Amino acid sequence: MFRRVLVANRGEIAVRIIYALKELGIESVAIYSEGDRDSLHVELADYAICIGPPSPAESYLNIPRIMSAAIISGADALHPGYGFLAENPDFADICERSGIKFIGPDSRLINLMGDKIAAKKLMKEAGVPTLPGYDGEIPDVKTAEKIADEIGYPIILKAAAGGGGRGMRIVESPLELNKSFSTAQSEALASFGDPRIYIEKYIEKPRHIEVQILADTRGNVIHLGERECSIQRRHQKLLEESPSPAVNEEMRRKLGDAAIKGAQSIGYVSAGTMEFLMDKNGDFYFMEMNTRIQVEHPVTEMVTGIDLVKEQILIAAGEELSVSQEDVEQRGHAIEVRINAEDPEKGFAPSPGKIELLHLPGGPGVRIDTHIYQGYTIPPYYDSLIAKLIVHGRDRNEAISRMRRALEEFLVQGIATTIPLHQKIVEDPRFVAGDIDTHFLERG
């Protein structure tokens, strides 16, 4: 087992990892920028090292400084969290060559699944359902026109090296293709340093369904059910729940089998997520694989009782999974909302600043993952996520009622947050009925 782990991240996920390390009896090392000196993860860790100025490029994205901190602190492992360098194969490779265990899959797997074109080909070969489209790189707009004519409009252009909606364009007709292709290529190059684009058939009113998996070094691979992640803004998730209101037991079995088959086909090891799009008929198609812990992992923890971060750490240490597929049972229903320091009334403009008053909700079935506290000043340099509110109920109706109550109790003064937006969502009759898709917010 590891003696000391460096947490190469910040905010609520750094706090979450430190909690898991404490419960496992492992010492934690926090890294922080000058802009994060007062962050909670710095106070909670056993050791803390400043690695540079507030700019992410000079701190949380600076591999030499992070590795220096890991070596100086005597860490024998490193947990990347999510975002920043969590899916950077070069970072994982450097950790491996430095004798510091990267808590996640190895660099080969990160690189393999980070290339969306290669990942789709591999999943198709493994028998996992994939969207109709072209499995290779699209060199120019004339090739794109030919492929689009063959599979039929609407189509979607996607960045081969990307995610999070960047480099993505929906094209309804041939007239839109030329401009959309150039824009998608430029955005992909700017965001990922890779202009490659691929094409898929676009599904009308799709649901975004993902399956959590765990795979150890002994060849054991299990799934922990699905999460519904359809409520999004500009391809960024806002609310997640488990189980999905659209998935029955037969569909759940098929989704789980597909996720396991895909993971086994590449020899995957660690926690990971297979992401699918589901159409109105309940047919699902592989979209991508995330080779890290997800922001929304708590909803799976709430319905299964399995600590995913601890399992991820134990897997990295060479331990066998503590649970088998037969042990996994979904109990009740969980919903998570992401609380961001943004103002929905002003186009979701960031809202950094000092938290003058803070009251976190509590009571039965309520969990808060956060790094904020009263008097804390939210810096303007990083992602605006300040907390995740997760509730659990005996069924979906109770979970919704509990979320409404918790959101009403969640008081933050001094900054604007997305709490009012979430209150509107959980009151919306369409959401209550489970009538949701990835365009839920756009439809008003």
Structure explained in plain terms:
This protein has 444 residues and is α+β, with helices and mostly antiparallel strands. The protein has 3 domains: 4-103, Rossmann fold (3-Layer(aba) Sandwich); 132-201, ATP-grasp fold, A domain (Dna Ligase, domain 1, 2-Layer Sandwich), CATH 3.30.1490.20; 207-432, D-amino Acid Aminotransferase, Chain A, domain 1 (2-Layer Sandwich), CATH 3.30.470.20. Helix content is 33%, strand content 27%. The protein contains 14 helices and 23 strands. It has helices spanning 11-23, 40-44, 63-73, 89-97, 107-114, 116-125, 141-151, 174-192, 249-265, 297-304, 308-316, 396-409, 419-427, 429-432, and strands at residues 4-7, 27-33, 47-52, 77-79, 101-102, 133-134, 155-159, 169-171, 197-201, 207-215, 221-233, 236-242, 270-278, 284-290, 333-340, 342-343, 349-350, 353-354, 357-359, 366-370, 377-378, 385-393, 411-413. An 8-stranded antiparallel β-sheet has the order 14-13-10-11-12-15-22-20, with helices on both faces. The protein has a 5-stranded parallel β-sheet with strand order 3-2-1-4-5. A hairpin with a 2-residue loop joins β11 (221-233) and β12. α4 packs antiparallel against α5 (107-114), α7 packs across α8 (174-192) and α12 (396-409) runs antiparallel to α13 (419-427). It starts with a strand and ends in a 12-residue tail after the last helix.
